[in-house]
Amino acid sequence: MPNGSLDKYLLSQEGLTSTMSWEEMFRISVGVARGIQYLHQGCDMQILHFDIKPHNILLDENFIPKVSDFGLARLYSKANNTIATLTAARGTIGYMAPELFYKNIGRVSYKADIYSFGMLVLDMAGKRNKLNISTNDSSQYFPEWVYNQVSEGRNGEIGGTTEEENKIAKKMVMVGLWCIEMNPCNRPSMNKVVDMLNGDVDGLQLPPRAVSEPIEAWVNDETDMSFDYS
């Protein structure tokens, strides 16, 4: 793609913000959401991607996003509520849903892609705020930090310099927080995500609670799991 992948437009060095505006970030997030919506609902078979992340979002000459790299994707019937059967965890640390690590959290389904999208959107918002969403230092862990800002009414801390940028930032983080709910059943479908992104930010509510630490912080050297990379 002419403009490469999304990751190169996000924070690359400490202290530097993304080169993209809030408006561009938002437009890309909506485009990615629609792409995943098509994978989940627009094809004859439901396609679960399992590796949504900035590196796999390619940008064309007009910065229209394209979901790429289907090496970990799986096809499932749309006849019922698909429950994926996996023999190994799939994806990239930092964007993988918790149920891919621990079966007692919930069954693996299309909601795993919803979680990855939520982390992607929060990653985009965090880069605009010079924060690393994947750090193990919970004082800087963006989902927890931004949840506290919004719940305490400090919306100006999460956005840009204009009222419109503040609304965009708040909408992105609110949608992202819903998408990374620990229980897969509490995450919205991608149809709902698209509606939330296109709707009025004042109509959005915070989820019951935020994830308090990055999922990868749960994993230690003694954890017995395999990762299906390609």
From TrEMBL:
Localisation per UniProt entry: Membrane
The record's section on InterPro entries has:
Kinase-like_dom_sf (IPR011009), LRK10/LRL21-25-like (IPR045874), Prot_kinase_dom (IPR000719), Ser/Thr_kinase_AS (IPR008271)
Q: In which broad location class does this protein mainly occur, judging by the first location in its UniProt entry?
A: membrane
* Keywords linked to the UniProt accession: ATP-binding, Glycoprotein, Kinase, Membrane, Nucleotide-binding, Serine/threonine-protein kinase, Signal, Transferase, Transmembrane, Transmembrane helix
Q: How does it sit in the membrane?
A: Single-pass type I membrane protein
Key word Zinc-finger present in the record? no
GO MF, one annotated term: protein serine/threonine kinase activity
GO cellular-component terms in the record?
A: membrane
Protein kinase domain spans which residues? 1-201
Name-wise, this protein is: Protein kinase domain-containing protein
Which species does the entry assign this protein to? Answer: Cuscuta epithymum
